[in-house]
């Protein structure tokens, strides 16, 4: 499996030899202060703080390898053309697939990359390490040159890094003109670019940002500098064959200034002589700051090799500490693969859904759905601080149950939409409850439901169908009739989100699709489209919220709700059966809260509200079972997932069967599908959707037509992105749904297929981790920044290993297959729960299969545990009384 990409040691460190042969490879590196970089095996890629502040020129997936600029280091020795330590000279690139091809080996771990280039044109080896210190907006690039020959090697050398220094918008908007704003200078061996103005979507503003670089070599400063890109590459050269290095063109000295030109961070060092076996380090640091005084502080303690090594070690340790989940199964590759799945939510926290080459859509930040799903992983790995994060996130909910879609830079900061377009994704109201429920299960903190939070307010009203003409730009939060900011409990927010969704239905009495649901590309059925899939999902929310309120009622027999919300609680006999009435009712509620609310809250018995929600959830499931089940004459069956803009069901059985995965996921997960129907869904999904060559279950089979009455996805090539790719997120949720219903073998098939496809480098062509999807030929695309990682992690911990919280109690109920235990019948997981460290060890000496084994006995720190209904429950109160300094060890013996 791991022919080309292999793990070395723990903490996810991996190695890939011959990495320069693969066009789509890039690696994410970031710090905590805002700098985010993408770097290829040959040190191309970009670095940026945000959309408006790029240190290097922005690159997308289409041009990351095609453009000629990179972070480069040149060696100029007599008798040879200038040689690149990154393999980025025209001479070296032309030698690909010939006997003169040099080998580049990438070794990488959390937030650092090392490339080793073994010279054939010169008797040397170059080892280049790059990282970003946790607390500095600074790329550190260390190049170590070793003389591998048997004679002294004399050479001059030069760092050559093109600087961009402006907004990504300027790639096509005033590219040349914004270069005229550049003021580039060399002072104390630092090249800095300080544009006079910034031109971007914010307008013309005085610039407040400095882009800079510095280089040195074991105490030796450069003897000259290149600060102008055109002067460096010359009239007939380029960045892979820069004329200045071939013609020995004069460089500039300290004190030089250059105005209005594309900037260059070029540092030329005087001749060095290395004896055989001798090494020398060269260091370049490039960063972003706001004042010249900051530069010295950012470069401090990074001038000597030992200081750089210390900072690298500190950085590596910092990110390793972020991942506190470890696994031991029969497959060591899977255990190490999970190291990267564990780390991917951290990358999404920093990069959002943008700022890597494949994620070239949008202008930064995270969307609403991403915000809540990323919290799932944080709750398992790093729960400290999640409570306040959740509370702040609820401030993005509007009083009509919709929400802001873009999260700002700071906690609790929201925007209506990235592109100022009025849109409503009908699934958005679903995710806050799912994340909040996980939080409560992990902590037992029901009191979070009592926390009061404001509501987001902008010009969108009537669930995005109309505009509030009384709204002003100063009104960011929902106000009452007195002009005061209205606050409601988190429980009220959850009730409003789910009840407003319940009432907003289409002609088939399923929830309206609106502008899209989870599948953003189902965006052309806003008038008559309905999402059967998420009608299932909301039914589960309503039922589980009702169950949670039953528990909440034990200490909170009464709750307060917004006076206007009373209309959403109607439940007269026969009322739910009439779509027209539901549509009138949601409009009635929208009208009541159109601009301001009365600010009056009225009391309800908690039990009464729970019963109301439960009745609505039950009705939805019964309606779905009666109307949306499709029997396949070949065998099996499935649930229709959508209605299109002509009011027709999207899926059908028979000779030209059309099937989508999304509807099956939520039908299974919500328990809308019966156990017998789950079996039939699995049969149909294996027939129509499973493709072993592409990583498992496709999002849909080939509909063979452009469906402009459904969404842009049908205009995509089949097998790409939302149109029939193996979309990791939904494939993982399919597995999670199956596990939750006890279909572990079927769920494992989907999880294992994704893992094996990801790690089969010959097919996936990606570094370890799970990508957004697998496209043509099974190639992994949109690496790292996917919510699939959070769901994969959640499924492995809560379902496979069966370790989960239940209102703060620790529950152990394994669903591991026999093949997942090692030769001795052992499987193990290390994790945190309620602030305590746990090692959970399963012993299955007879290698019994799931469904055949049961928990025979178990101990915690050598004390016997009680087994009840096939699982172990350690109460929250008992855990809180345990010594938090002790790593608690649970041993579970499995037998027939």
TrEMBL record:
Sample GO molecular function, one term: carbohydrate binding
Keywords: Glycosyltransferase, Transferase
SUPFAM superfamilies: Galactose mutarotase-like, Six-hairpin glycosidases
Residue ranges of every copy of the Glycosyl hydrolase 94 supersandwich domain listed in the record: 118-304
Keyword presence, Transferase: yes
InterPro entries: 6-hairpin_glycosidase_sf, 6hp_glycosidase-like_sf, Gal_mutarotase_sf_dom, GH65_N, GH94_catalytic, GH94_Enzymes, Glyco_hydrolase_94_b-supersand
Positions of the Glycosyl hydrolase 94 catalytic domain: 318-551, 620-802
Gene Ontology biological process: carbohydrate metabolic process
Name under which the protein is recorded: Cellobiose phosphorylase
Protein's organism: Agathobacter ruminis
């Amino acid at each position: 499996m791991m022919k080309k990409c292999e793990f070395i040691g723990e903490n996810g460190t991996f190695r890939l030899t011959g990495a320069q042969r693969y066009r789509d490879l890039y690696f994410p590196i970031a710090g905590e202060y805002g700098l985010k970089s993408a770097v290829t095996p040959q040190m191309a890629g970009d670095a940026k703080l945000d959309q408006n502040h790029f240190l290097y020129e922005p690159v997308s997936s289409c041009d990351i390898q095609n453009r000629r600029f990179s972070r480069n280091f040149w060696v100029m020795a007599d008798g040879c053309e200038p040689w690149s330590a990154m393999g980025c000279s025209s001479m070296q690139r032309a030698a690909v697939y010939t006997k003169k091809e040099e080998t580049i080996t990438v070794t990488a771990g959390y937030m650092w990359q090392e490339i080793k280039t073994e010279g054939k044109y010169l008797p040397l080896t170059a080892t280049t390490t790059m990282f970003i210190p946790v607390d500095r907006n600074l790329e550190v690039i260390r190049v170590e040159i070793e003389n591998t020959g048997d004679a002294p090697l004399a050479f001059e050398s030069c760092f050559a890094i093109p600087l961009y220094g402006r907004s990504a918008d300027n790639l096509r908007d005033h590219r040349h003109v914004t270069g005229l704003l550049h003021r580039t200078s060399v002072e104390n061996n630092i090249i800095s670019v300080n544009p006079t103005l910034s031109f971007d979507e914010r307008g013309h503003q005085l610039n407040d940002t400095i882009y800079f670089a510095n280089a040195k070599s074991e105490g030796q400063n450069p003897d000259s500098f290149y600060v102008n890109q055109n002067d460096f590459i010359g009239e007939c050269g380029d960045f892979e064959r820069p004329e200045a290095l071939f013609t020995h063109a004069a460089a500039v000295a300290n004190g030089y200034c250059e105005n209005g030109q594309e900037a260059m961070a070029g540092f030329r060092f005087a001749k060095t002589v290395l004896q055989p076996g001798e090494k020398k380090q060269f260091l370049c640091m490039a960063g972003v700051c706001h004042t010249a005084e900051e530069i010295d502080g950012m470069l401090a303690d990074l001038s000597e090799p030992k200081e750089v090594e210390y900072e690298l070690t500190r950085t590596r340790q910092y990110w390793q500490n972020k991942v506190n989940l470890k696994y031991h199964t029969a497959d060591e590759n899977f255990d190490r693969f999970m190291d990267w799945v564990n780390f991917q939510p951290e990358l999404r926290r920093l990069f959002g859904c943008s700022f890597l080459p494949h994620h070239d859509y949008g202008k930064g930040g995270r969307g609403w759905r991403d915000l809540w799903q990323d919290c799932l992983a944080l709750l398992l790995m790093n729960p400290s601080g999640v409570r306040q994060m959740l509370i702040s996130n609820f401030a993005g909910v509007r009083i009509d149950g919709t929400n802001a879609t873009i999260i700002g830079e700071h906690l609790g900061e929201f925007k209506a939409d990235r592109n100022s377009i009025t849109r409503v994704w009908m699934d958005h109201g679903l995710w806050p409850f799912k994340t909040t429920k996980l939080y409560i299960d992990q902590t037992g903190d029901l009191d979070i439901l009592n926390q009061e939070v404001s509501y987001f307010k902008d010009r969108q009203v009537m669930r995005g169908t109309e505009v509030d003409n009384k709204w002003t730009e100063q009104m960011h939060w929902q106000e009452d009739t007195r002009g005061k900011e209205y606050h409601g409990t988190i429980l009220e927010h959850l009730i409003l989100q789910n009840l407003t969704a319940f009432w907003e239905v289409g002609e088939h009495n399923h929830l309206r699709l609106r502008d899209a649901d989870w599948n953003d590309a189902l965006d052309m059925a806003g008038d008559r489209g309905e999402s059967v899939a998420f009608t299932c999902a909301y039914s589960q929310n309503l039922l589980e919220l009702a169950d949670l309120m039953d528990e909440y009622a034990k200490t909170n027999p009464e709750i307060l709700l917004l006076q206007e919300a009373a209309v959403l609680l109607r439940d007269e006999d026969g009322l739910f059966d009439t779509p027209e009435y539901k549509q009138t009712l949601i409009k009635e509620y929208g009208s009541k809260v159109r601009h301001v609310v009365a600010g009056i809250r009225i009391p309800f018995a908690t039990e009464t509200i729970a019963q109301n929600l439960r009745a609505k959830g039950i009705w939805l499931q019964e309606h779905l079972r009666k109307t949306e089940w499709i029997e396949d004459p070949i065998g099996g069956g499935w649930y229709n997932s959508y209605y299109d803009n002509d009011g027709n069901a999207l899926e059908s059985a028979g000779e030209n069967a059309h099937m989508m995965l999304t509807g099956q996921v939520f039908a299974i997960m919500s328990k809308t599908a019966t156990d017998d129907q789950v079996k039939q869904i699995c049969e149909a999904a294996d027939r129509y959707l499973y493709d072993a060559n592409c990583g498992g279950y496709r999002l849909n089979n080939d509909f063979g037509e452009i469906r402009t009455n459904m969404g842009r996805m049908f205009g995509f090539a089949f097998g790409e992105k939302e149109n029939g790719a193996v979309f990791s997120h939904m494939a993982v949720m399919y597995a999670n749904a199956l596990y939750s219903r006890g279909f572990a073998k079927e769920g494992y098939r989907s999880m294992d297929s994704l893992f094996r496809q990801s790690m089969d480098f010959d097919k996936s062509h990606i570094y370890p981790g799970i990508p957004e999807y697998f496209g043509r030929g099974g190639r992994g695309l949109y690496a790292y920044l996917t919510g699939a990682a959070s769901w994969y992690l959640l499924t492995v911990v809560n379902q496979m290993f069966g370790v989960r919280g239940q209102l703060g109690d620790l529950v152990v109920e394994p669903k591991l297959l026999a093949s997942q235990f090692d030769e001795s019948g052992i499987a193990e997981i290390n994790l945190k729960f309620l602030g305590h460290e746990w090692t959970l060890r399963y012993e299955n000496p007879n290698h019994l299969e799931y469904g055949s084994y049961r928990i025979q006995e178990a101990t915690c720190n050598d004390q016997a545990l009680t087994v009840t209904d096939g699982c172990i429950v350690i109460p929250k109160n008992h855990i809180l009384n345990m010594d938090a300094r002790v790593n608690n060890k649970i041993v579970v013996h499995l037998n027939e």
